[in-house]
Amino acid sequence: MYFIHTTLNMVHGRLHAKVCLVDDRFTLRIGELNYHHIVSYLTKQPPRTINYLWTAPEIIDAQTRLSREGDIFAVGLIVTSISSQEEPRRVQHPVGCLVDIPAYVPAEIRLLIERCASDDVQSRPSIQLVKRRFGQMEPLNGTKGNIVDRVFARYSTYTATLENAVRERSEELKRERMKCDEILQQMLPAFVLDKLRTSRIIPAEYFEESTIYFSDLVGFVSWVTLVSPWTVMKMLNLMMAVFDSQIAHYAVQKIESVGDSYMVSIVVVTQSGGSQLVFNLTPM
Known about the structure:
Layout: H1 2-7, E1 20-22, E2 28-30, H2 35-43, H3 57-60, H4 68-84, E3 89-95, E4 97-100, H5 107-116, H6 127-136, H7 147-187, H8 190-198, E5 211-215, H9 220-224, H10 229-247, E6 253-258, E7 261-269, E8 275-277
Antiparallel strand pairs: 1-2, 3-4, 5-7, 6-7, 7-8
Helix pairs in contact: 4-5
């Protein structure tokens, strides 16, 4: 816009966010320049299309023709859109500034927007002053350098934030998977879990011989009538926890635990696919 207003000594007239294009060198290119003249030349009529959001009110009311002040008004809306990362909103009953500026916009940028989008045409700054104010502003996040350096710094910040978020979600997923594996290990044999991780279909296996071990507490039914439910649950939980910690040292697989009963299957599946019995239950 500085080049258009100073070097070319022209007015854009249709400036809005969609005509601001950034090329592969991070250079801003402004499109639709001379749009009004081209349309008028081809149709022999003035263009009738007006973008009411980005057009200054004095131009909409047909009080003035296209002007540099109208372009500055559009610059204020574009700065608002960049700062808030959303489409600017016009104030319904304006007093002073004609655009709604979010509260989180920095004070220096807010002041510039208020002057560019002012309802007083004469108080709007020139493009030279706008350029000077941008040059005097402190870079975002303390980043020094030109616009390319700032863009890459912002991309780096965004990438770091995204990596941290992905890392946190990955750790959370890992913890949840470990919890799931712990529950499944109490329900299924290890070789079944391995097959579940690699395939959805687990074929049934047949074993020629197996040994089933049952445990039972003598006098449990009479004992529970003499103590509180909390005592019963505490004792059963302690007993089952001891059993669960011990069966890991033996070639047994927990089948179920109901009340005071604890049931395990004593079948060892070898790497060759066969099975063998474990008869010595005394240590366990």
